[in-house]
Design brief:
The protein is mostly helical and 108 residues long. The protein has helices at residues 2-10, 16-31, 36-70, 73-84. The chain crosses the membrane at residues 12-31.
Length: 108
């Protein structure tokens, strides 16, 4: 009985065509220079690079909008007043900072 069950499972592997086909499939999936594993790794790299490209395209769009705003006289003046606290002659500036916007050192 045991010999009969062994033969039942090994019978397909006695055929040369099946052995060659199984060897070819294993070779193509794991060992070849164009194997499935390498393709999978390269596809994941491509996806990561495409995501990075989308991120940089969004950043370029934001920078172009900022450049467009700064190209006008009013936009440039607003930026200088807000970021560098510049002022016109005979003008006083009062900076109001709220408690939640202050950077406070934490005592540990």
């Amino acid at each position: 009985m045991a010999k009969l069950n062994k033969n039942k499972y090994l019978k397909p592997f006695k055929n040369w065509f099946i052995l060659i086909f199984v060897g070819f499939v294993v070779w193509m999936l794991f060992f070849d220079t164009n194997s499935w594993l390498i393709h999978h790794e390269l596809n994941s790299d491509i996806k990561a690079l495409e995501n990075e490209k989308e991120y940089y395209n969004r950043e370029i769009e934001k920078d172009n909008k900022a450049i467009k705003k700064l190209s006008t006289e009013e936009g440039l003046e607003k930026f200088a007043r807000e970021e560098y606290y510049m002022k016109k002659e005979n003008e006083e500036i009062f900076i109001i900072e709220y408690e939640d916007s202050l950077k406070v050192k934490k005592d540990d």
